[in-house]
Amino acid sequence: MTDHKAKIALVTGASRGLGKNTALALAKKGVGVIVTYLNSEAEAKSVVSAIETMGGKAVALQLDIGNIKTLDGFVVQLKQALQNTWETEQFDFLINNAGISQNSLFAETTEEEFDRLLKVNFKGVFFLTQKLLPLLKEGGRIVNVSSFLAHVISPGRATYASAKGAIEVLTRSLAKELGHRQITVNVIVPGAIATEGSVVQNNPEINKMIASQTALGRVGEPDDIGDAVVLLLSEGNRWITGQRIEISGGQSL
Fold first, then answer.
1. For the chain, which has fewer Cβ within 10 Å, the N-terminal or C-terminal residue?
2. What is the CATH number of the domain that holds 49?
3. Per-residue pLDDT reduced to its tens digit, 90-141
4. Whole-angstrom Cα distance, residue 38 to residue 49?
């Protein structure tokens, strides 16, 4: 990336998994990172420490994206962090990574389960992004995170997949509405990734099955996603917006 010494990214759900990997990948390119977490404060601070060890700047902020009433308070904390750490009022990149998943067959899904998934995976992303628009620089970037499960249907994921499908439509709407500010908005669609504690990592049979269905012959690693996000945010990708970009190694082609 060119001229990223002064760039700042906000990565939601960055205390572990793909969010953590993305935060570290950006930091390696000299991007300052705001790491948000729900409950894992120690893990989030560990990510901040790792970035500081690289010589970068980072802060960890608590964010309950599923609780809309808390978002205004988060914005206040974010403004303070930007001023205190970077002496600025705006940031460059928003990566909407935070999300939750669960298995629940359609016929057995309760309203409570439905509301919980939609609040975190769609409503929270919608209103957090809305509230952050004044803080996002002209020419900034938004990257939303969908899921392969929105396209390759798996029983028990109807609510989750529907919410991710909504994120993909929202991405196109935002790209159109924010274009006048030269803000690009894209959505990534990770395939099966061997994140910590995932079934892909813990079950060798599932790992082997998915690898056999993937053009590049293996399941994804977290670095595959973090590095791809870095590419999306590079100066050379200023003309890509409103796009759904699958990062799966050619899974189920």
1. C
2. 3.40.50.720
3. 999 999 999 999 889 999 999 999 999 999 999 999 999 999 999 999 999 9
4. 18
The helix-helix angle for 124-132 and 71-81 (nearest 10°) equals 40
**What are the helix (H) ranges across the chain?**
17-28, 41-53, 71-81, 111-118, 124-132, 158-178, 199-202, 204-212, 222-232
The pair of structure tokens assigned to 83 is 């001023």
User: Does the pTM of the predicted model rise above 0.90?
Assistant: yes
Residue 160: active-site member: yes
Task: Write down the residue that tokens 């409950």 correspond to.
Answer: 39
C-alpha Rg value of the chain to the nearest Å: 18
Instruction: Give the structural domain span for 68.
Output: 8-192+223-246
Asked if residue 87 belongs to a domain, the reply is yes
> C-alpha angle with apex 120: 17 to 136, nearest 5 degrees?
80
Write out pLDDT tens, residues 39-83: 999 999 999 999 999 999 999 999 999 999 999 999 999 999 999
